[in-house]
Amino acid sequence: MNKERLYLYDTTLRDGQQTQGVSFSTAEKCRIAEALDCLGVDYIEGGWPGANPTDSAFFDAAPKTSARLTAFGMTKRSGRSAENDEVLAAVMNAGTGAVCLVGKTHEFHVRAALGIALEENVENIARSLAHIVAQGREALFDAEHFFDGYKANPGYALECLRAALEAGTRWIVLCDTNGGTLPVEVGEITAAVIAAGIPGDRLGIHTHNDTESAVAASLAAVDAGARQIQGTLNGLGERCGNANLTTLIPTLLLKEPYASRYEIGVDPAALRSLSAVSRQLDEILNRVPLRQAAYVGASAFAHKAGLHASAILKEPSTYEHIDPETVGNARVIPMSNQAGQSNLRRRLAEAGIAVEPGDPALARLLDTIKEREDQGYSYDSAQASFEILARKELGQMPRFFEVKRYKVTIERRKNKYDRMVSLSEAVVVVKVDGEKKLSVSESMDSEGCDRGPVNALAKALAKDLGPYQNKIADMRLVDFKVRITQGGTEAATRVIIDSEDAEGRRWSTVGVSPNIVDASFEALLDAINWKLLRAE
Amino acid sequence: MNKERLYLYDTTLRDGQQTQGVSFSTAEKCRIAEALDCLGVDYIEGGWPGANPTDSAFFDAAPKTSARLTAFGMTKRSGRSAENDEVLAAVMNAGTGAVCLVGKTHEFHVRAALGIALEENVENIARSLAHIVAQGREALFDAEHFFDGYKANPGYALECLRAALEAGTRWIVLCDTNGGTLPVEVGEITAAVIAAGIPGDRLGIHTHNDTESAVAASLAAVDAGARQIQGTLNGLGERCGNANLTTLIPTLLLKEPYASRYEIGVDPAALRSLSAVSRQLDEILNRVPLRQAAYVGASAFAHKAGLHASAILKEPSTYEHIDPETVGNARVIPMSNQAGQSNLRRRLAEAGIAVEPGDPALARLLDTIKEREDQGYSYDSAQASFEILARKELGQMPRFFEVKRYKVTIERRKNKYDRMVSLSEAVVVVKVDGEKKLSVSESMDSEGCDRGPVNALAKALAKDLGPYQNKIADMRLVDFKVRITQGGTEAATRVIIDSEDAEGRRWSTVGVSPNIVDASFEALLDAINWKLLRAE
């Protein structure tokens, strides 16, 4: 059977950046673009070149992708030609293969927000998109407020679309900008647009989650004939977010009628990476992953109800709508950890530790991991700490040195110039080869700036480790992430530290404590121990 | 025009309790039941009496409600009569006006999980529900796995429903237990059930969010003719959660075709309490509220995109699908370094600060904001700090107290039992009304657990503020977020603190410093100052 192709257009880097509290650095945008490309989306919208420095910088730094990199902008303003609109020029100058321009299709917005005649807006749309096509780029038209516009004045809304189509636009994207249109209406209006002569294989759908229906509305548009879906990873986006590609991708691949009718650029291997990609984005954003997220959430296949859990043990399909492994997720049954052993052996092998199947140490180690993960440790994102924990449990961890005690003081007071200044000081006492060593460091850097208690502690700890000193000399802390793991202020703090050495190794370690300095210290210790293991 | 009545059936206390990490106390269940009753749901499912001690205790302690309290259980087992099934007896003994029994309608489950003949299962359904009716209770039948069962064997699935109906069951609830059925199919199968003779006004719908479509699937069932909707507050529930009543209620009241066609038990005044009810549940669960939640989330009406924010200032309806006040929520126009003066004036007005257009203070304040955002401050997620910054710049910020200095000590060493323990101690010196006050606190909580330096500092700071002390007594820190803003360890740390008070206010403040304790202290100071401003 011939399947029809559906196209996925990701806007995590543009609309996703409108999420309250989210702002990507250029390097983060590059990492996300690479992840999206591995996943197999067709288009990656990178931002609005010219609108802010990060977006412009991203297009210069962007990785080479199979997915088509797309710049976003708006149709030219009135009173100048497309060639002479400097906002549009900045968008074109990003040099992407595809350009998507937002333009108005709702007569109220043309009058109220732009304050121009309806015909002038149509002209602006046509000229802008023709300009893109003339430059040899693939053109997309983002029809802003289309559904509300269609309901207010269908003739005008369609006229705007036709103007774009006739200008040679590849994709006309029906955008439910305010997110208030319910799925049934999205389906009906999409069908009406197709009936009015805009071909379905030129139509895209862009929805928002303001009624918690963005995914269903996207599917309703596909049912009606649209062939491009726009969305974001983890449903990031302005207000309540955009249509969630992390949900749409598995639904399109695994659920009927979509699985039989359509094909998309995501293959089964990429689908198995979906949970990891979702977590990677949260990691970049320093967000706590949503446990109950569809398909990829930590609770998505957790069976708590007694009736369900016992049936699942007999036959997983009784209470699971899909096999969790297809999306790289895992079943969680509070009572049993048997499923974990082969998985655990694989992770140990990756760290160079061989354990026979059935070794009782495996069950012990699983219990320890589970207990510590309940306390807030996260071994998924801290492989070096996982290795150290496993080696300890298996009796394969050398004891390089022992920390006897430490003390950190943070003081903030007025200096002699009557300015408030702060300073931290750390004393660490370690025992190395039977010898006790006291080290002290302060948090002031070479520029006289206070770098805080964790910095002072890291410096004191690394100051004198006797025979091991030269082995950690090339080690550098490159990132430091802190998260409250149980909500509320009286909860535990999880610190993840990324370290690097001169040989280009990069490793992550974790510490958990209600005391943030203590959690940091634990992660620092693991980081040094892992480096010493590798230096042996 | 005659509207048809739709009934809302809340299962927060039963299915919601299957959420991973959630377990309610009896007192919490009572508080939630009261909130649900004020909201205006028709049924409150309280739990499964006999299945666990909390559920049984709740039915004894339950508040008197207008909503019909409902006990949940399962159809009688084979080999005994309904009268002699002790599991069913425990459910009946709760004495509720309504009883809902789950039973199987999927032939595979009857054979695989129950291991009984298909006819025997039908008999168990009929006898169990007849027993409830005979006792003068309202009977509901929860048809487990109905959609999957109907697809496998429609004749048998319908036979089960008919048996329940003929036994006098008030509501037959079509349950998509595994959550994998998409909205279109839910609608088609519901229509087929009605066509097969089960009246729509006897049909309920119970969906799960495993494909992020539980809300849309519930609406599809209503479109097809079902007249009872089951769901939970905030979409709590097993795995990915149940259909979210917090979303469905405003959609039914505010969106077409539902608003014109149907009436529900929730009135406009109750609708305005919706955001508060949602937050109250999160507070009971000690969960961080989901910012992007539809209708009630803190970001649901946050307009970050420059184009949107400027249009909103002219006319809110341009980028809002409903008026946020109808659901007790509020519009947020986050500050960002692109925002212009009119946006700023709007934000100031919201904080009760009037500034004339063109006032030079506006440009000054914009510069200050931009400079601080470059340092890592984020006023988009910390509106209370924005207000304080603005008031300072405009000379409208009272100086309640002055911090002269502080000192925090963190120590980790062996205790007398040779175990490593840590303890933090903070000394804060403030000047209030010309009087110098020294306060000291340690980080140990009432359970002997070390809560770390920020906790010690917060306690010392709040310990003695003289005349202001009683004004901050009801203040509580509810979340604490830390992020490194410039990458690398030598970078600045941004701390955002969310606080709450007894009046239900919630505010966010920000602090930035390379020293995490110092950044936290700055955010704490803003939090207290903002509370004092409001208490004036």
UniProtKB/TrEMBL annotation, chains A, B:
<dbReference type="InterPro" id="IPR013785">
    <property type="entry name" value="Aldolase_TIM"/>
</dbReference>
<keyword id="KW-0028">Amino-acid biosynthesis</keyword>
<dbReference type="Pfam" id="PF08502">
    <property type="entry name" value="LeuA_dimer"/>
</dbReference>
<dbReference type="GO" id="GO:0043714">
    <property type="term" value="F:(R)-citramalate synthase activity"/>
</dbReference>
<dbReference type="Pfam" id="PF22617">
    <property type="entry name" value="HCS_D2"/>
</dbReference>
<comment type="similarity">
    <text>Belongs to the alpha-IPM synthase/homocitrate synthase family.</text>
</comment>
<dbReference type="GO" id="GO:0003852">
    <property type="term" value="F:2-isopropylmalate synthase activity"/>
</dbReference>
<dbReference type="InterPro" id="IPR005675">
    <property type="entry name" value="Citramal_synthase"/>
</dbReference>
<keyword id="KW-0412">Isoleucine biosynthesis</keyword>
<dbReference type="InterPro" id="IPR000891">
    <property type="entry name" value="PYR_CT"/>
</dbReference>
<dbReference type="GO" id="GO:0009097">
    <property type="term" value="P:isoleucine biosynthetic process"/>
</dbReference>
<dbReference type="InterPro" id="IPR013709">
    <property type="entry name" value="2-isopropylmalate_synth_dimer"/>
</dbReference>
<dbReference type="InterPro" id="IPR002034">
    <property type="entry name" value="AIPM/Hcit_synth_CS"/>
</dbReference>
<protein>
    <recommendedName>
        <fullName>Citramalate synthase</fullName>
        <ecNumber>2.3.3.21</ecNumber>
    </recommendedName>
</protein>
<dbReference type="GO" id="GO:0009098">
    <property type="term" value="P:L-leucine biosynthetic process"/>
</dbReference>
<dbReference type="Pfam" id="PF00682">
    <property type="entry name" value="HMGL-like"/>
</dbReference>
<dbReference type="InterPro" id="IPR036230">
    <property type="entry name" value="LeuA_allosteric_dom_sf"/>
</dbReference>
<dbReference type="InterPro" id="IPR054691">
    <property type="entry name" value="LeuA/HCS_post-cat"/>
</dbReference>
<keyword id="KW-0808">Transferase</keyword>
<comment type="pathway">
    <text>Amino-acid biosynthesis; L-isoleucine biosynthesis; 2-oxobutanoate from pyruvate: step 1/3.</text>
</comment>
<keyword id="KW-0100">Branched-chain amino acid biosynthesis</keyword>
<feature type="domain" description="Pyruvate carboxyltransferase">
    <location>
        <begin position="6"/>
        <end position="272"/>
    </location>
</feature>
